[in-house]
Amino acid sequence: MERKYGTHSELKNVKKKKYAQTFLESDDFNGYVTLVKIDQVTEPLFKQCGKEEICVIDEGYMVLQHFPLKKNHSVTTMFNSKGEIVQWYIDIVRENGIENDIPWMDDLYLDIVALPSGEVIRLDADELEEAYRTEKITKQQYDLAWEESDNVYKMVTDGKFPLIKLSNAHKKLLEGKLSEK
Description:
Radius of gyration: 16 Å
Pfam families: DUF402
Protein name: DUF402 domain-containing protein
Number of domains: 1
Shape: globular
Mean pLDDT: 94
Domain DUF402: 61-161
InterPro entries: DUF402, FomD-like_sf
Largest sheet: 9 strands, antiparallel
Low-confidence stretches: none
CATH superfamily: FomD-like
CATH class: Mainly Beta
Organism: Fictibacillus aquaticus
Strand content: over 45%
Number of helices: 3
Structural class: alpha+beta
């Protein structure tokens, strides 16, 4: 299980970025939200999503991430340089938390990608199976990952997953707080 942070320091092709974060508590969302604006990259990053290859990281792009408390998922929304959503990437997680004032998630391997076209793609079941087989995760964590993935997938395909609807508003909220990091 890998711990990933809201600063997205794992993006090695990003050379210059700005960062902002906040804590939100409302009827729709309770947790941390981070925003990374990418100013300079060594090269764009493309990912295969279903039948198409899409650019997910490039200069001018923004990466918004939700870390809901007491939930077993985290949502990363990628915006292109025009402010249009490229994809919602939903990680299934053991938990979300905060350390040294930086939000984090403990990734449970399964992922769901939702595209603006309406296509929804499940990813990385093989990684979850391998983690369980090699005892990197417990049976309880394995079952949790599948249960959460099934629940989130159903909400997304039914149009009832709230974080997809909140992406633009939360991006606007954080844009004014961006600073070098």
